[in-house]
Amino acid sequence: MNVDAVSAVFREVLEIPEVTADSDFFVMGGDSLLATRVLSAVARATGVELEFDDLLDAPTPNALSKKIAEAA
Amino acid sequence: MNVVVVGAGLAGLTAATELVARGAEVTVLEARERVGGRTHGLEVEPGGWVDAGAAYLGERHTALTALLAELDLKTTPATVAGASRFALRDAGATRPGRFPPLSAVALGEMFDALEEVTRLVRPDAPWLTEDAARLDGLTAERWAAERLRHPDARLFFSLFLGEMMAADPARVSVLHMAFYLRSGGGIRYLNAFEGGAQEWRIAGGAHQVCERLAAALGDRVRLGEPVLELHQDAGGVTATTPRGRVRGTHAVVAVPPVLADAIDLRPGPPAPRSTPATGPGCAVKVHLVYPSPLWRELGLSGWSVSAEGPLLSTVDDSPAGERAGVLTGFVTGAEARRYAALPAPEQRGLAVAQAARLFPELPPPIAFHLTDWVGEPYSRGCYAALFGPGDWPRLGPGLTAPHGRVHWAGTETSTEFFGLMEGAIRSGHRVAAEITWRETP
Ligand SMILES: Cc1cc2nc3c(=O)[nH]c(=O)nc-3n(C[C@H](O)[C@H](O)[C@H](O)COP(=O)(O)OP(=O)(O)OC[C@H]3O[C@@H](n4cnc5c(N)ncnc54)[C@H](O)[C@@H]3O)c2cc1C
């Protein structure tokens, strides 16, 4: 999943347009409930099942996209 | 204008206060020997109060926050930092924050499905939702069985509905679940502490709202007077209680739907306020009192979630600025019904033993309080009535429609923040405006 695709998921879940490659999900208003919806979208798109801590670790589209690639 | 208000909960007292301000004569008839209804305070140490009923609010609860400001009541944050304890699949786990040790992807799928169905519903008139018939005919339990594959999602779903609505998934329609979640601001707002519906508690207890409203109304409020009959004729309405009759030009019935139907109304209303499918929300609250919030020193928030009851979740509700530490345990849904039926010593034993398993580092509590809302004859359902399959199409259209001189209030008549304190207060404002408007030449 490339950075743009992850950004698109952030946008949809957070319901805000202004997400860049370096936007921090939790700073942009994400909480644990919304985090699970990011992870389910990632799993649907890639088959990769990440944990909540992975998103805490990699809270930007940039970082998360790398994490998905590593796990794939 | 001379109005008889039935019920001295938030809805009835808000309506009464506003009607008095608009120049009406008002009598409030309350069945219990106290005001407050589903808000109720318990004094766990001198000056230290906890909420046996409603407790939490957030910034979208604008009618409530405005009322708090008028009454000079303050809020206190409901969040406590620290790690949580979980007893879900594994015996016990301590985790930083509130995230449970379950598959995040499975929970995400559950919230996706809930979000989808919550968006479908028409919040101002759920019975007019497209596809209402299908959603109304389906119980939340069946919906979950069809939609949720992962066992973690199913487990969490029933805990979530218990926490949010005190509902047993087998007894609530998907339409009502979706409506309730939407009405309260959506799943995310309802679920959140910070920035959500559990942002604050009312310092000193939520019961003070009704106590202060009642104090200002003075002897207009009469306790221990359950209204048994409401008879209307061309000139007015007569309410009968075991102590006598009260006559008014209008009446406001501000009690839960099942209790409204228990009043002998003549002539009878065109439609009932509840049906056999209308279920009680089921909640028992227990309070475990400790000499101080000892768990905080151990880096724990007091928050726990368990798959097995009775205490499906615990939260730190220690009175702000006092010494005592209080863990509130929530027993909800089907578990509440089972637990409420047990003898008192067994109830206490089970709760204390579970707290000891969850928090083995704590000493036994120094006091224990239990509030059984399931068995309260003048509540019959908490947090609020649960509309079962078939209810919305039958009950929805008449939710706020006056029956002659009889007007309806109560949190279950508010499509905004249904089931919450906020909904109750909004219904009180709505009904006061309705009556004043009618009387304006
Ligand atoms: C355990 C629990 C936790 C809750 N948690 C929250 C929370 O955190 N946040 C939140 O916003 N809400 C919460 N709620 C819901 C909230 O308490 C209610 O939505 C709100 O208090 C309802 O107010 P009301 O005026 O509509 O009804 P009620 O409070 O039920 O008032 C009705 C009144 O009518 C009286 N009455 C009944 N029948 C008659 C009769 N025939 N004649 C005369 N009087 C009668 C009753 O005694 C009662 O005083 C909770 C409820 C419970 C029980």
From TrEMBL, chain A:
User: InterPro entries in the record, alphabetically?
Assistant: ACP-like_sf, PKS_PP-bd, PP-bd_ACP
Q: Which domain of life is it from?
A: Bacteria
Species of the source: Nonomuraea roseoviolacea subsp. carminata
Chain ranges of the Carrier domain:
1-72
What this protein is called in its record is Acyl carrier protein
Fetch the PROSITE patterns from UniProt.
Answer: CARRIER (PS50075)
Keywords, ordered alphabetically: Phosphopantetheine, Phosphoprotein
Q: Supply the SMART domains for this chain.
A: PKS_PP
State if Phosphoprotein is listed as a keyword: yes
Q: What is the lineage of its organism?
A: Bacteria, Bacillati, Actinomycetota, Actinomycetes, Streptosporangiales
Which Pfam families does the entry mention?
Answer: PP-binding (PF00550)
From TrEMBL, chain B:
Domain (Amine oxidase): residue spans on this chain: 10-435
UniProt GO MF annotations = monoamine oxidase activity
* EC number(s) recorded for this UniProt protein: 1.4.3.4
* Source organism, top-level taxon: Bacteria
Under Gene3D superfamilies, the record lists: 3.90.660.10, FAD/NAD(P)-binding domain (3.50.50.60), Guanine Nucleotide Dissociation Inhibitor, domain 1 (1.10.405.10)
Q: Which family does it belong to?
A: Belongs to the flavin monoamine oxidase family.
Name of the protein in its database record: Monoamine oxidase
